UniProtKB/TrEMBL annotation:
The keyword Magnesium does not apply. Key component of the proton channel; it plays a direct role in the translocation of protons across the membrane. This is ATP synthase subunit a. Keywords: ATP synthesis, Cell membrane, CF(0), Hydrogen ion transport, Hydrolase, Ion transport, Membrane, Transmembrane, Transmembrane helix, Transport. GO terms for cellular component: plasma membrane; proton-transporting ATP synthase complex. GO terms for molecular function: hydrolase activity; proton-transporting ATP synthase activity, rotational mechanism. It holds the Pfam family ATP-synt_A. InterPro entries: ATP_syn_F0_a_bact/chloroplast, ATP_synth_F0_asu, ATP_synth_F0_asu_AS, F0_ATP_A_sf. Belongs to the ATPase A chain family. NCBIfam families: ATP_synt_6_or_A (TIGR01131), PRK05815.2-3 (NF004481). It is a multi-pass membrane protein. The keyword NADP does not apply. The chain crosses the membrane at residues 21-39, 78-98, 105-126, 165-187, 193-214.
Amino acid sequence: MELTPDDTIVFAIGALAINKTIFNTWLIMALLTAVSWLVTRNLRPEVPPSRWRTALEVIVRGIEGQIAEISQAPDRRLLYFSGTLFLFIVTSNLLMVVPGFDPPTASLSTTAALALSVLVAVPIFGISSRGLGGYLATYVEPSVVMLPFNVISEFSRGISLAIRLYGNIMSGAVIAAILLGVAPFFFPVVMDMLGLLTGIIQAYIFAILATVYISSATAAPPDRDTPEPAKDQT
């Protein structure tokens, strides 16, 4: 039993071996690109929306609504970033029910790359929103003593993101393989349903945490000159 799709080589280009993780990642990106193009190719006001276009708009509006609830200052770029993360992860996790398909999110290299993209996005969004000095000042809040702890916290976020997604998807695949050997006619259906639910939840959690981290970096600092409201003396 293979614990990760990294061990399966699909084909090789010279000395470059393309494993299942890379191949399936390309497959998902091609699928999302093709679906997006097919649904939006007739995106004109005079053309009535199709069912697929309506479904896509519902998904986008849902993601936009979640970001608006979390972020104090909703940014269109945050919709593109977090929405892309969610669609890629949820598509990868849902396709695990296809026989022979190993989701790329069951590989630590994929989840680490996704977490790294969040770690890079946080300072980019923070600097573009608050400026370099304003963003760096968040590392010494509420006091300069907290600088090393804030730096460690920043890196621990990335490790937590990668391990959480990888652990849940990989463990689900291992448990399904074990139960398949115990009761091959009953447990596959149950595990597929549980895997779909877990995959959607994990994609949601990853995208929400990425949105929270970026929103905290772009949030305006508290105005310390604003006086506190007077207490009621009655």
